């Protein structure tokens, strides 16, 4: 499973946007059915930012569904097939 951990770059908005964009396009091309994005638990601000990114219309076209991992709320699972 492909994984993107946002902990190391959580303070730089441009780096977060770029990392998410690169990751989601690479994950969509990879053929893996599920990829994980790890914004962490924290205050929830980074989690909301990731969800807003995934909710953009041109990004939604790349995946089937997304969900917060029920066992770990600091992890978002993105399903491609």
Describe this structure in words.
The protein is an alpha+beta fold. It has one domain. The chain has helices at residues 13-30, 45-54, 57-60; strands at residues 2-5, 34-38, 65-68, 76-79. The radius of gyration is 12 Å and the shape is globular. The two termini are 13 Å apart.
Give the SSE string.
EHEHHEE
Q: Report how far apart the termini are.
A: 13 Å
Number of helices: 3
Number of domains: 1
Outline the low-pLDDT stretches: none
> Taking strands numbered 1, 2, ... along the chain, how are they ordered across the largest sheet?
1-2-4-3
Structural class: alpha+beta
Radius of gyration: 12 Å
Strand tally, please?
4
Q: In this structure, how is the largest beta sheet organized?
A: 4 strands, mixed
Q: What is the overall shape?
A: globular
Give the DSSP E fraction (strand runs of 2 or more residues).
Answer: 15-25%
Helix percentage range? 25-40%
Average pLDDT reading: 95
Give the SSE map.
Blueprint: E1 2-5, H1 13-30, E2 34-38, H2 45-54, H3 57-60, E3 65-68, E4 76-79
Parallel strand pairs: 1-2
Antiparallel strand pairs: 2-4, 3-4
């Amino acid at each position: 499973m492909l994984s993107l951990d946002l902990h190391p770059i959580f303070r730089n908005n441009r780096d977060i946007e770029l990392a998410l964009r690169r990751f989601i396009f690479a994950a969509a091309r990879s053929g893996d059915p599920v990829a994980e994005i790890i914004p962490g638990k924290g205050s929830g601000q980074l989690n909301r930012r990731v969800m807003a990114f995934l909710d953009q219309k041109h990004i939604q076209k790349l995946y089937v569904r997304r969900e917060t991992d029920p066992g770990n709320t600091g992890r978002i699972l993105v399903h491609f097939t």
